[in-house]
Amino acid sequence: MKLSPSTLAAVLATLAGNTDARTLTQQSSNTKNLTFDVLDYVDPLIGTANGGHVFAGATLPFGMAKAVADSTADQQGGFASDSSTISGFSHMHDSGTGGSASLGNFPLFPNPGCPDNDLNLCTYRYQSRAIGFSNESIIAQPGYFSIDLDSGIKGETTVTNHTALYRFTFPSSGTTAPMIFADLIDLPQSRTNGTASVNATTGRITGTGTFSPSFGIGNYDLHFCVDFSGADIYDTGVFVNDRAGNEPKTVRTLDDGVDNDESYSAGAFTRFSPGSLSVIARVGVSFISVDKACSNGETEIPEFNFEGTKDAAQTIWREKLSSVSIDATGVSDEFQTIFWSGLYRAHISPQDYTGENPLWDSIEPYYDSYYCIWDSFRAIHQLITLVDPLSQSRMVRSLIDIYRHEGFLPDCRMSLCKGYTQGGSNADVLITEAYLKNITDIDWSTAYEAVIKDAEVEPTNWGIEGRGGLTSWKNLGYIPTDDFDPYGQGPLTRSISRTVEYAYDDYCIAILAKALGKTDDYDKYIQRATNWYNMFDPNTTSLGYAGFLQVRYPNGTWGYQDPQFCSALLDFTSCYLNPDGHETYEGSTWLYTFYVPQDMASLIDALGGQEAFIDRLTFFHESGLLYVGDEQSFLPVYQFHYGGRPGLSAKQAHAYIPSQFNTSVSGIPGNDDSGAMGSFSTLSMIGVWPVPGQDVYLINPPFFKEVNITHGITGKIATIRNVNFDPTYTDIYIQKVTRDGKTWTNNWIDHSFFENGGVLEITTGATESDWGTSVKDLPPSLASYKF
Ligand SMILES: *[C@@H]1O[C@H](CO)[C@@H](O)[C@H](O)[C@H]1NC(C)=O
Ligand SMILES: *[C@@H]1O[C@H](CO)[C@@H](O)[C@H](O)[C@H]1NC(C)=O
Ligand SMILES: *[C@@H]1O[C@H](CO)[C@@H](O)[C@H](O)[C@H]1NC(C)=O
Ligand SMILES: *[C@@H]1O[C@H](CO)[C@@H](O)[C@H](O)[C@H]1NC(C)=O
Ligand SMILES: *[C@@H]1O[C@H](CO)[C@@H](O)[C@H](O)[C@H]1NC(C)=O
Ligand SMILES: *[C@@H]1O[C@H](CO)[C@@H](O)[C@H](O)[C@H]1NC(C)=O
Ligand SMILES: *[C@@H]1O[C@H](CO)[C@@H](O)[C@H](O)[C@H]1NC(C)=O
Ligand SMILES: *[C@@H]1O[C@H](CO)[C@@H](O)[C@H](O)[C@H]1NC(C)=O
Ligand SMILES: *[C@@H]1O[C@H](CO)[C@@H](O)[C@H](O)[C@H]1NC(C)=O
Ligand SMILES: *[C@@H]1O[C@H](CO)[C@@H](O)[C@H](O)[C@H]1NC(C)=O
């Protein structure tokens, strides 16, 4: 179904809420190059190799259904470009995660028929059915994925919010009955029990399973419902490992399986008349019930219309990405593709499970797959805030609702379960930032209650929520190494990184307290915001630099962890979330020493002043100590602004893009972590770097001649224009800036620019200038700058 222009305008108007259809039509004809299709510049395969774990399949923005062909190796996000076999097509995924694979429940597997139509000559088992594919056949677009399997079957998929739609095209020479079966397995092979049934008349396959989350505790039930269209039913039945039969029509797998084998394959199949060329399979999914899974499919895709569903999905994506427009004159397709693909990936998660939450009744939105906030609070939510503040509002509301019903804000959450906390309680940062950026419809009094609870109440299991060591935190002013903490349990590692994160979380709480008029609380938390300094040892040295965060025991004496330890230069992988994970999480003390976004002036002072700071930060980037593939390294790319050298931030951004962020399948330096890497490159190319938790954007020249961002609520346009734009990126140094025609010397700007619109005109040149270098030009800091 191709939409006519007027239908399209109406669809867009509906999606945009109360916007008048005419306005949208006018906007698109006025401001868009009519031959430009943003989807041509989105490549979902970026980051699908070399551990990027990006989900490459079909999804709607923040949709629950995420369908793709699943690889047999490195399949955290389903499909991996560097894997050579496929184990099936599944309907739900997470994107860019580390650790183990996520979701991938109830995969469909098509085959052209069993030899001699003998059911027992087909291969069902997960371990043996994997099949090769043609690399050249892969087509990945927003809302669509296609692959040709070595069995001669083409598998294509598209989605709505809770339904995956597949079109399987079988080889035309087939004389056997093509089969599609659904396996009760999931990608991490976490199923404990499950059941699948098939209806002999309709071929409908339904089922339920209990699974475990991929980075958290507990379990969840998921339900599915497969309906077929396009071919006559030949027969139906069930299979268990490599055996199958037409009777019975239901199969169960037991909790802990007969042989304790969670990789035990079992499920139901439907075969189609020999010669059938094409079958549409519609898979509704639901966390509520089988009936809900079926009704999701029936209501969202009543007609089994593959092309229409795909077109609708792609229309939704075009509209979603249209809050940003760029003048790409002179800029390569490579850079445009990095830009738009990053923006696209920021819209994959968190996932909107509103109406699908069996855990509690609520009228609030419910989003899941905050995977994890420790990763997403540094760039993803800032980008969503810029381009889609309504979604950000719904997400913050859902965080607060999770607090209401679970008792704590999450730091990580997936598949209805609590995920592991990696550092601080960084939802506090998101909540304060939402307040400062006028995110609407939030219950601020409950939000405040939630962040105060993080700061004051230690949960029994602080490995999954809240913070640990709160008694020490309050009494000693740091999280001691080898803490004595009988009040709760969690991994007693990361004392350094938790200290700086807790200090920053408390800073954000202080700012919210102040905004809400709670001055006593402000005084208390702003004091705690200085706690980072209690772990700062001026006597620790490394590579010629003095003064680093350092291990500190409850009795106040210093211990020792080499500041290089867990940097890209020394024992890089020794600081994970395991019992001997050491004192800095996924990074070195070199890295964490820079994490004082609340008080960069004091940090600069502690590190020996402006020149020493700039020298150290430059060395950090150029020595190979910094690994830009983990999110804590994003802010240090831009912290030159605080030392009065904004030009060096621009220089570093260009050093990493495209050398570390590019369009190859391995074109991101680390796990995408639900779009974090993509958000880094897109925000960098827009030219404003948001400091998480603050109403501060550090100004850099965009990678384009002009970028417009239309605010999702006010409709106002913020234009960032690059005068003297040099597409070779030699002249990347700001000479002067005007805001709405007036000279702007601050090297940062606040959110009112995006909310109220305006023009930021940046003039660039070949060398650094005086712009943004004086103390009065620098971003806010708790203490005053002393230079
Ligand atoms: C419109 O976009 C197309 C594709 O990006 C490009 O080739 C063409 O030059 C653009 N036209 C104008 C007038 O900018
Ligand atoms: C497809 O390409 C990837 C990446 O180059 C490679 O690892 C894989 O082996 C190829 N698969 C096939 C079937 O050629
Ligand atoms: C999908 O869900 C979003 C909310 O996340 C909603 O705005 C949108 O209308 C839904 N799309 C369709 C086609 O139902
Ligand atoms: C599987 O077992 C769990 C308890 O272990 C139960 O909560 C769940 O409902 C069961 N699921 C199915 C599909 O039987
Ligand atoms: C199979 O589906 C048909 C059509 O919906 C329905 O009438 C019948 O009751 C179903 N059979 C079973 C066993 O549920
Ligand atoms: C940005 O918006 C302004 C005002 O509507 C418009 O004149 C300009 O062409 C737009 N630029 C881009 C790159 O879309
Ligand atoms: C640093 O070393 C000097 C000289 O040994 C000592 O006096 C000082 O107390 C040390 N500082 C800290 C914070 O331990
Ligand atoms: C402080 O505690 C550490 C670690 O338990 C210990 O090695 C050190 O001797 C203690 N120092 C003092 C002065 O008690
Ligand atoms: C693209 O990025 C990857 C990952 O960061 C990097 O390894 C590779 O060298 C880059 N490729 C180019 C051509 O710069
Ligand atoms: C937030 O909204 C208020 C009033 O609606 C306005 O005065 C203020 O400038 C806005 N703040 C930002 C950061 O846009």
TrEMBL record:
NCBIfam families listed in its UniProt record: aman2_put
Domain Glycosyl hydrolase family 92 N-terminal stretches: 41-286
A molecular function (GO) term: peptide-N4-(N-acetyl-beta-glucosaminyl)asparagine amidase activity
Position of the signal peptide: 1-21
Keyword Signal: yes
Occurrences of domain Glycosyl hydrolase family (ranges): 292-765
GO biological process entries: carbohydrate metabolic process; glycoprotein catabolic process
Protein name: Secreted glycosidase
PANTHER family reported for this sequence: PEPTIDE N-GLYCANASE PNGASE -RELATED, PUTATIVE SUBFAMILY (AFU_ORTHOLOGUE AFUA_6G13760)-RELATED
InterPro entries in the cross-refs: 6-hairpin_glycosidase_sf (IPR008928), GH-type_carb-bd (IPR014718), GH92_a_mannosidase_put (IPR005887), GH92_N (IPR041371), Glyco_hydro_92 (IPR012939), PNGase (IPR050883)
Cellular component annotations (GO), alphabetically ordered: cytosol; nucleus
Matching SUPFAM superfamilies: Six-hairpin glycosidases
Lineage of producing organism: Eukaryota, Fungi, Dikarya, Ascomycota, Pezizomycotina
Provenance organism: Talaromyces atroroseus
Highest taxon, organism lineage: Eukaryota
Keyword set includes Signal: yes
Keywords for the protein's UniProt record, in alphabetical order: Signal
Pfam families in UniProt: Glyco_hydro_92, Glyco_hydro_92N
